[in-house]
Amino acid sequence: MMDHFFQEFGLEHVLVLFMLGISVFLLALTVERLATFAWIRLSMGAARRTIEVARDGGLQQARAQAEGLRQPMRGVFVAGLDRALGAVRGEPGRAMARETKRVGGLLKARTWMLATAGALMPFVGLFGTVIGVMASFQAIGESGQGGFAVVSVGISQALVATAVGIAVALEAVFLFNVLNSMSGKLSREISLLVDELLELIEAHRRAPDAGRA
Predict the structure, then answer these.
(1) Which of 80, 182, 210, 212 could form a disulfide with 92 if both were Cys (CB 3.0 to 4.6 A apart)?
(2) Is the pTM of this model over 0.85?
């Protein structure tokens, strides 16, 4: 039954449908990534208010404020503040750096699929074209009819696979670059927030020493 399907429909047409399905999947993946970025940005907005509390009221108040943060910034700030207040043993800077790396992994998650599609889809399209051209020449050989008019129809249909492959690859590369740029910007903003909180933690730690001096 599958042999009959491929004979009637053509493997190159199956590959075209496959690439169109990949295109839809890449768009869905991009929407999911954008939703994740928006969720993280909301978390960052609340994290800025936690920094203001730490600056004006102290680390205890900031820790209470951090309890109500959205993830993933809650994990980053709580890790640093708990160690700064002595609730958990360890260095605040290292703890926040570790949690920041986890957020970076969340930002980059699944974007490799876009890069992979951008690299592979032209070859998938070219493979479909080769299959289509081979099928066209085989049909010409079996029918015994030739000429440019007969050959051009089959080849033009086969070239559709290459065109679709290139189009999907362009889509994948464009979306990958957009998401990569956005995730890089978010990573830099998160690093700035972490640096600002760490600066306040170090200032609070130095304050008792300055008082004793």
Answers:
(1) 80
(2) no
Residue 24, burial from CB neighbour count under 10 angstroms (0-12, 13-18, 19+) = exposed
Q: Is 80 exposed, middle or buried (0-12, 13-18, 19+ CB in 10 A)?
A: buried
Task: List, for residues 27-76, the tens digit of each pLDDT value.
Answer: 999 999 999 999 989 888 888 898 888 888 788 888 888 888 888 888 88
Q: Which domain holds residue 173?
A: 9-206
* Number of other residues whose CB lies within 10 A of the CB of residue 123: 12
Please report which residue ranges of the chain form alpha helices under DSSP H: 2-9, 11-56, 59-66, 73-84, 92-108, 112-143, 148-212
Q: Does 149 reside within a domain?
A: yes
Per-residue pLDDT at 153: 61
Q: Do the domain assignments include residue 1?
A: no
Tally of domains within the chain: 1
Q: Is the bond preceding 72 in cis, omega lying within 30 degrees of 0?
A: yes
Does residue 105 lie within any of the structural domains? yes
